[in-house]
Structures are given as structure tokens and as C-alpha cells.
Amino acid sequence: MAVDAGLGAVRAGGNAVDAALAAMMVAMTTEPGIVSPMGGAYVTIWPPGGEPEVIDGNVEMPGRGLPAERFGTGLLEFGLTYGGGITVYAGPGSVATPGAFAAMGLAHERHGVGEWSRVMHDAVKAARKGFHVGRAAASYLILTTDNIFGWDEQTHTAMTNPDGSVLAAGDRLISPDLADSLELIGQRGWREVYTGELGRALAADQEARGGLVTAEDLAAYEAIVRTPLRLRAGDWDIATNPPPSVGGPMLAVMLGELVARGGTDWRDVIKVQEHVLTYRTDVHDFSANLEEDGYRMLAEVRRKGLAGLTTSSSTAHVSAVDSDGMACAITASAGYGSGATVPGTGLMLNNCLGEPELNRLGLHALPPGTRLASNMAPSTGRTSHGRVLAIGTPGADRITTALMQVLARHCLLDVDLGEAIGRPRAHVRVVRGEATRVDYERDPEIKAAIEKLAMPMLEHDNHAMYFGGVGAAALSASGVLSAAGDPRREAATGVA
Hints:
By secondary structure, the protein is an alpha+beta fold. The protein folds into two domains: 2-221 and 332-358, no CATH class; 226-316 and 375-484, Glutamine Phosphoribosylpyrophosphate, subunit 1, domain 1 (4-Layer Sandwich). Helix content is 37%, strand content 17%. The protein has 16 helices and 18 strands. It has a six-stranded antiparallel beta sheet. A five-stranded antiparallel beta sheet has the order 7-2-1-11-10, covered by helices on one side. α1 packs antiparallel against α4 and α2 (16-30) runs parallel beside α4. The longest helix is centred in the middle third of the chain and has 17 residues, at 266-282. The radius of gyration is 21 Å and the shape is globular. The model has no long low-confidence stretch (mean pLDDT 93).
């Protein structure tokens, strides 16, 4: 449905940006629990004949104008078996100021050519007429329907069958309230979410239930146009998410180190991941200034190489490229979900303040207006011969390691995009206080490399969802459009 929406936007006169936005809106509508429009997003765009840019619509710490005693409240603790066992915090107090609509709206204003209402059209249709729940969403709802999505009666009703049973893959879900809200946003514009009727409803509900998002937070929120990080990989000039994002700088350093080493030997892949992710765990996870620390890391690597370094969850991604050479990559996340739905709107809110991995300094510890940490790294690329690429992936801390491996294969070794995505992956799992280990998909070469490095290992089945879901769109030097999706997730591709 998301791919059909993107192709429909093109047929209505849109470009790659319109297509990516329309596809992402449908994904946010039809992947309940996996992603929702009331979270954060990054949009990386490289227009033909212009310079690339990243539109930062990540979530912010709310709470402007609130008394000190409100902070630290409104949180509900839940233990989930997801990912081998995690603790997350949901409830009204887990909601961060959403930025996805601001980012997508600004991207459309700056680079879209179709009507904004057309961007929203297919998402409205999907919510109003209904859609069949996919396997990924169904597997997550099995774990969360009676806890995260169970404490708010409105959410629980919207996320279950009429008899109250858990939604299974293939069950039909209709969201009339959400359809009305999306239609309103399509008619009035994306600012409706911040300073319009929907924004006022969100702030009023947060106040009534003990959340931190205020009308002042919503009015003050702005998507930020940032200059991306740039790096060379073979013939490719790659642009990715800059600080204060964590994902982009980590990808830039890891891929850059593989370029410097001149190959993709598994021992190099694993050791580079270990070094960079250990640095991230020791420094960035506890950073009080992610932008400053991100650029400091990049400067240290430039001066001293990798030796200069002392040693999220539910997301969705869309990539689009058009025949004019416009490239757009969007990654969005709403965390694990707060369980809160703004009454009468169908808009389910994020729980980004309740994700421990994004709040290592403590829950509610950041000053209001601070952007939260993010692993998201939507990227675009070009060559001097006219090739164009848009690429990204969901997958929490596996975002950077998945992209590192796929981009190294495609850009350095010129492996076909689909094959580069489908080949086995490895991920070095670095958790403070635990032994570092290598998770990998079943492959004798990877296993042999880990054994030579004498590192603990955990083997996964091939194409395990754990390792992300890379999606890419490309334009060849001769003008041929193509796209490739990841067999690890419910990917879909289309060309028009």
C-alpha cells in the first residue's frame, strides 16, 4: 500500500519527494505499533543540480512552562520479551514533542511539486476503508496489546478486533478517527498538528493525563535544515545524517574506515564495529551535548584514524529516486509507542522519553527543547557519472551496521544493490556492563572471522529481522530506475 501511494503521487505529477512522503504516510498509518505519525523523522534530500540537505524532525524533550515536580511523573513501566527482553516506559509522561509532520511538511514545501493533500490522500483512504495488518505489526501487537496498548481504553479498542482479541496478520483494521485527522491535516496543512485544532487537543490531553507536552512546546517546535555529513566511498559521494544524530556520524566513521582499509574483510567489519560502537556506548550514550561530541569524534578520526577513539526500536524507512535525479530518504520512529491516543483523533503518541537507550542520562533529565538521541541515518549518494542512490533502514543500533555493510558492498565492490542488501550481516553488540559479542547471520566466513578474533558469538537464522530492513532506490548512469527491498522485513518496491 505504501509503494502504491508513492507511485500514485508520481502519476499525479509529483517527484521523488512527493512519492517518499506519500509512502511514509501510508506506512505510518498501516503499521500499527511499528511506527506512527506522532513520532520523529529525518528526511535526507539531494536535488538534481543542488546540494544535499537533511531535514531534522527528531523528537524533542517537552515541558516548557511546567513546574519541576511534573518531571519524572506520568510513566508506566513495562517488561517486554521483544529483542530478548527489554524494559520500556510508556504512559502520558513518555511522550516527546513530535517532529515527523514538521519535517515532512518542510520537505514538501522546499522540494515537493505535487499538492500536499495528495501526499496525504492514500493514508486517509487506508485509514477510512481499512487495511490488512501485516506480519511485522501483528508479531509486535502480540507482545504489546495487553500492556503498552492496554492501559488506554481508546487505544486498546483501536488496536484489537471487535471482540477484543489481538489482531493477527491479515485481520482488517479500520481507523475512522485517524482518517478524519489525516484528512484535516491534508486540508489545513501540517501546522495543524502544532498550532491548530489537533495541536490544542494533544496539549489538552497531555495536561489532563499528566504528560509533559504543552501548547508552548508544540508552537516552538521547528524542523531544522542541516548540512549533511559527506564521505567518499569508491566513486560515490555519500550524504548522511549529521550531529546531533548519533546514527549518521557512526555510519560515516565505520564506512570511512572500511574505505581506508580498502575492502570488506569480515575481521575488518567486526573490529571497526566494535571500536566505534564501544566509543558510542562510552561517550555518546551519556553525552550532554550530542552535536559537540559528534563533531569532536569526527575530528579525532580525521586527525588520528580509528585509534583516536577511546574505547532505537520501532522504525520505518522509505527511499525514492526519480528520473530527474532527485533522491529522498526518510526514516521515522515513534519508539515502542506510549499507548496514549489523543481522544477523538486516532493519533497514537510516541514513547521516546521512555526508551532507556535514548535517555541514558535519565528519564526526563534533558532541558525542554533538547533533541533526543537517534540512530536514524537516511542517506543519499551520487557519482560523477550520473548514478543516484537513496538508502536507509529501520533497526535501532543495527541501522548503522546494516548500512555500513550494504554501502561497502555496493559502493566499494559494485555489488548489485539487491544482492548487497540480501547478503549475510554481522553486528557487534556492545552493552555497558555486559560482554561484547558478535551477532551474525549463518555464514561460514563470518563464523571463521569471529573465531579468529576470539570473540563471543550468537548465530541467527539467515535474513533475521534483527539485522534491519534496508530499502534503496537508484538511478543508473544510463537513466534506468530500480529499487531493492530487504527480505528481512516486509519490504515492497515499485517503479513507474
